[in-house]
Amino acid sequence: MSWDDVYAAVRSIPRGRVATYGDVARQLSRTISPAAVGWALAACPDDVPWQRVVRADGSLAVDADGLGRQRRLLARERVRFDDAGRVKLKTYRHTFEGEEP
């Protein structure tokens, strides 16, 4: 397992959909922890849609720039948020191939 495997899984999440860090880890047969998925995304290439990976409760990671970049990028993809600022996972969660919805 390499960071490239994480990047490939994240690239497979369609525009307008999200997955959790745990979802990505499970897609990789648990050979990586959800935290390690986060570490990989912190250093990802520009072509990886890192914004499509959220916390298990649908909340967003704290942006390094502190300006809400992840939320803006997801909003451009027409992802909506609840009153607490979390992604509505029941609506926008991506199911990886081979997983049950």
What does this structure look like?
- 37% of the residues lie in helices and 4% in strands.
- It has 101 residues and is mainly alpha-helical.
- The chain has a single domain (3-92), classed as Orthogonal Bundle (Arc Repressor Mutant, subunit A).
- A two-stranded parallel ribbon has the order 1-2.
- The longest helix has 9 residues, at 3-11.
- The mean pLDDT is 89.
CATH superfamily: Winged helix-like DNA-binding domain superfamily/Winged helix DNA-binding domain
Helix count equals 5
Number of strands: 2
CATH fold descriptor: Arc Repressor Mutant, subunit A
CATH architecture: Orthogonal Bundle
CATH class term: Mainly Alpha
Mean of pLDDT: 89
Q: Runs with pLDDT <50, length 5+?
A: none
Strand order of the largest sheet: 1-2
Terminal Cα span: 25 Å
Order of helices and strands: HEHHEHH
Task: Give the biggest beta sheet.
Answer: 2 strands, parallel
The structural class is mainly alpha
β content, as a range? under 5%
Domains (count): 1
What share of the residues lie within helices?
25-40%
User: Roughly how many Å is the radius of gyration?
Assistant: 13 Å
